[in-house]
Amino acid sequence: MKKLFYLLLCLPLAFAACTEPDTPGVENKEYDLKVTSETILNFEAEGGKGVIAYTLEEKTRFSPVGQPVVEAFCEATWVSELTVAENITFQVAANEADARETKIVVTYGEQQVEVAVKQEAKAEEPVNDVVFEAQVLTGEYYGDYYTPNAGNYYIFFSDYGFDEEGSILTNSIYYQLDLYGELYEGEAVNGCIPLPAGTYTLDADDTMAVGTIGYSYSCYMKTNSSEIEVEVYFDEAVLVVEEDGSCTLTAVVEGVKHIVTFNGESSIADRREVNTGGDNVEMEAGYAYATYYGDQYSPGVADNFYFFLSDKGFDADGWELPNATYYRFDLFSDIVNPEDGLAIPYGTYTIDNGSSEPFTIGAQYSAYYIMDAEGWDYAVSSGITSGTVTISEDGVVADLMIAGAHHVVTFSGDILVTDASSGGGEGGGGEGPYSTLWEDYRCNFDDHTLYYAYYSDYYEVGYMNWTFAVMPNDGEGDFVQFDVLAGADSTTNFFGEYAINDSFEAYTSYTGYIDWDGYMVGAWYYTEDGYTMAPFVDGTMSVVDNGDGTVTVEFDVYDDCDNNITGSWTGAMLSADELSTRAADIKKAEVKSVEAPVKRAIEVKKRDISKF
User: Distance (Å, rounded) from C-alpha 144 to C-alpha 185?
Assistant: First the structure.
């Protein structure tokens, strides 16, 4: 009886378990969500339609809860038309920029599966080589007027050449080369000099050595109906001159290869007689002046003095005087100790092509010139071909060859030497100008990262302060930095357009200067060695959010010598805390220490010896 009682008790429970609950309109089952297609979907830049296949596998026969529905979601705006049906379908937009990726999240109740969507970058448009058959090869031959031990050929490959006055023509193309070959000492034929056979390679250092193409005076130019439309330096250039005078120039201009050929009669005018130094010169200088730069230009090897001899000297602001004569020498000596008394070591210094060895004089920054009646331009100017400068207790004797003439310059007395080896002497950073650039410059940001730091209302003007620097990842290359005032509410980013000035207004970037401790503050361009640099004093800069995790920084600015510096960088930003072991630091007012000031001539308004 007891056993039967237990069986009777169990029967109602068994019957209850086989009875579906009374829940009208509800499918009371549980399922597992399974994505049966690939969980990484790849798309080409053109985009297209995507499909995600899925199943719901039955897990239990009955469930007391209602059945959820399958849903899908994606944050990226370039994934659209997301539809859930038998399969999940969506549309991927065409990509006009870098490679990108996102994820589509598929949910079923509390279950979730992520599907990665990756899209290739827009394919670069194929760039065809520029093939140009020059009809004209013209120019001038200066002999060794500008450089010792090499002949200087200033030449142009062109379609139409120049007008009767030597001016460029409209709607024309010019490939300009400042070429250095073997010294030609033969006679001119009909006033022209042949171009010596050989291979000439672009030299970024402008050493003026035989077989090189000088960087600073070589470029590609194109004119339209009214002006020069394009004027761009070469990235690379190799000129091959055959024995028969035919030429092939292979140059890279803004990443595009240009192949220039010429077959015909060249017309390179002989300027050796026109550009002579005149009669032999003997002059007793009344002034001797030097600026000491330490060993910053030849570390641990030699010390550098920028040395001038002149009949009249300079005015109180360091400018040349009208009708005054100057001999300028970029002189390298043994290492000296300024604490023992700063003076140029005694000895004989020889003109060379820039070895920076002790007792040499670099030809590139050495010159002879006479000022005009206004003291603004050169009446006479020339490089120093060869020679020596001897400094002794009796004074100075300069024995020089300048454009075929013999110059002997003597000086008796004390040489005034100022110390510029550690930040501009007394007064810290000095008053500038500080730029070491000699011409406009386009920054190269091939492998760089942007680092930033936030300083809230650092200047107490009501606007949020940020500093950032675009720096090369390998430590070598172009650096730029900015110290900006964004909007009053710009506490999370510094996107916007900025003017370079010192107004402390919203959306301005403070101009560059060197503070009393020798640090570069504000907006600057520089390189890791600390010798190439330029403060930004005018122009504009912008920081744009691209919406895909990257920003673009673009700037079009001017330094304190009116050089135009431009650049553009796109990438992901990192905070200053992520610098870790990087050599540079964008800590406030210490982006880079300037151990030595700018190397420059006393004059700033006249940058180079003109060839014309």
Answer: 10
Q: Could you tell me what percent of the chain has a pLDDT over 70? A: 83
Strands 54-60 and 30-35: antiparallel
What is the C-alpha separation between 131 and 251, in angstroms, rounded? 11
pTM of the model: 0.39
Strand pairing report for 256-262 and 513-514: unpaired
What are the pLDDT digits (tens) for 233-243? 999 999 999 99
The amino acid present at 119, given as its one-letter code, is: Q
Residues in the chain: 612
Rounded distance, CA 518 to CA 297, Å?
18
Residue tagged 């595009």 (tokens): 256
Alpha helices in 186-328 (DSSP H): none
Among 27-36, 300-309, 533-542, whose mean pLDDT is lowest?
A: 27-36
3-state helix, strand, coil in the chain (%, to 5): 5, 45, 50
Strand partners, 450: 470, 573
> Is 610 exposed, middle or buried (CB count within 10 Å of its CB: 0-12, 13-18, 19+)?
exposed
The CA distance from 417 to 400, in Å, is 23
- What confidence tier does 30 reach under pLDDT thresholds 50, 70, 90? confident
Contact yes or no for 295/320 (Cβ under 8 A): no
pLDDT in tens, 475-501: 778 999 999 999 999 999 999 999 999
Which pLDDT belongs to residue 315? Answer: 79
- What domains can you pick out in the chain, each with its CATH number? 27-119 (2.60.40.10), 130-270 (no CATH), 281-419 (no CATH), 441-579 (no CATH)
